[in-house]
Each structure stands twice: as structure tokens, then as C-alpha cells.
Amino acid sequence: MEMPHCAMVGGASDVALCAGLNQLKNEHGHLNERKRALYETAGQIINGELENKREALDALRKGTESFSAQLKHHAEREENVLFTMMARYIGRENGPIAMMEYEHDEAEKYIEIFLNGTKIMDEDQAEVLASYIVQMYELLTNHFFKEENVLFPMAENLLSAAEKDELEEKVCTTGLQ
């Protein structure tokens, strides 16, 4: 997908963001901590570093369920509020918003495959199942980087003051718990 011209792509992380965009960006920090812990456990399973695979998969499943709920809440606010606002200017069918929504769907797909696969704790499938968490981690790491360095600065320049106030009202009052 082709990115529209954006003058701030280089050095975009230096752009001061409005409160709503800051809220979404700050949530990435919490989500990054959570996904990093999942990634580390998945890596230990894949590398055979844990004695009890069943116990490790169960812990990874519980952590993933909790993470998934927070990720869904975050992604829904991005899609329903921020992306909808930005779509008025740059469209939604192609370009950065379409890519961000696709990546949200892909991350959710990896999580679903893992959760469905761990309903029955099959130790023989532990490494394969854990690999979906690794894939989710890698996808979201790149995704958050693109949002913080391209999409959020782009939104800062596109949105009007009234839209930024609306974004703050809708995003900051429903932040991650």
C-alpha cells in the first residue's frame, strides 16, 4: 500500500502530540511491557527452557487473554475514533489507515490461533502455538513504531483543534485500565 505524501516522516517522533494522541501513544508503553513478557515466555517454550510445557502454556494463555482484552480496547478506540477522523482527510480503503487496520486484524488472528490451539493443552504443539505469540509480538512492535512515528504525527497535522478536543474526550476518558 502506498503512503500518502507526508512532510514529517523524517523526525516525526519529535512532533508534539495533542492529549488524545499522547494517550494512545502512552498506552503502547503498557502494551509493550505486556507483550514483551508474553514474548519471553513464548521464547522459553520454543527453546525448551521450561520443564513443564503444560504449565507454561497455561500461564501464556492466561497472560494472552488479559493482553488481548487490553489490545482490543486500544485498537477499537484507534479504529472507531482516530482512524475515522483521519479517514475524512486521507481515506480508509488504501494507505496508512488500511494498513493499520490490517495489522490490528493480523495481530488478533495470531492471538486467536494461539488461544484456540491452547483450549486443549497439547504439549506436542507447544512450540508451534508459542510461535504465534512471537509473530504477534513482532507484528505489533513494528505496528506501534509506525503509529508513533508516522500515523500519530500525521494526525497531529491533519486534525483540527475541534477534532483534537473530540479525540481527547473520546480516548482519554476510556484509557487502558
From TrEMBL:
**Gene3D superfamilies reported in the protein's UniProt record:** nmb1532 protein domain like
Task: Give the Pfam families listed for this entry.
Answer: Hemerythrin
Q: Where is the Hemerythrin-like domain?
A: 20-155
> What InterPro entries would the database entry show?
Hemerythrin-like
What name has this protein been given in UniProt? Hemerythrin domain-containing protein
This chain's source organism reads Heyndrickxia faecalis
